[in-house]
Amino acid sequence: MNTELENMEIIRRFNDALNAADLETMTSLLSGDTVFENTAPAPDGTRYTGRAEVRAFWEEFFHGSASARIEVEETFAAGDRCIMRWVYRWRDPQDRDGHIRGVDVYRLRDGLITEKLSYVKG
Predict the structure, then answer these.
(1) Is the whole model's pTM more than 0.85, yes or no?
(2) Where along the chain do its domains lie?
């Protein structure tokens, strides 16, 4: 079983890979049965299940959001759970900056992300 500090490091590595659009590293940090719940569409978001389905989401995301960046505000852990508060920043097709703030609730098992549930303000 990983320690809370090890789990927080895995989440940091995942976010660094996301900001680098490094799909290979991101995928390597996901369990085979991973679950990702996106923030859209409101109110519940879309649920993606399994490494291949989650990878396909991120691949599509990178094609449509080349300038996207997640800035971490805070990360903490309790047991197999990690919480990350963040600001998501982007530039839209009209060259305008945008951002939203949110929280990801992660669950980890054996050094891999098994669940990433995303929530936003607003």
Answers:
(1) yes
(2) 4-120
From first CA to last CA, the distance across the chain in angstroms is: 36
pLDDT digits (tens, 9 = 90+) for 58-105: 999 998 887 889 999 999 999 999 999 999 998 887 888 899 999 999
What does the alpha-carbon distance between residue 111 and residue 75 come to, in Å, rounded to a whole number? Answer: 17
Alpha-carbon span 116 to 103, nearest angstrom: 10
CA 12 to chain CA centroid, nearest Å: 10
Among 32, 26, 29, smallest CA distance to 52 is for 32
CATH number of 4-120: 3.10.450.50
DSSP codes, 54-120: HHHHHHHHHHH-TT-EEEEEEEEEETTEEEEEEEEEEE-TTS-EEEEEEEEEEEEETTEEEEEEEEE
Distance of CA 115 to the CA centre of its chain: 10
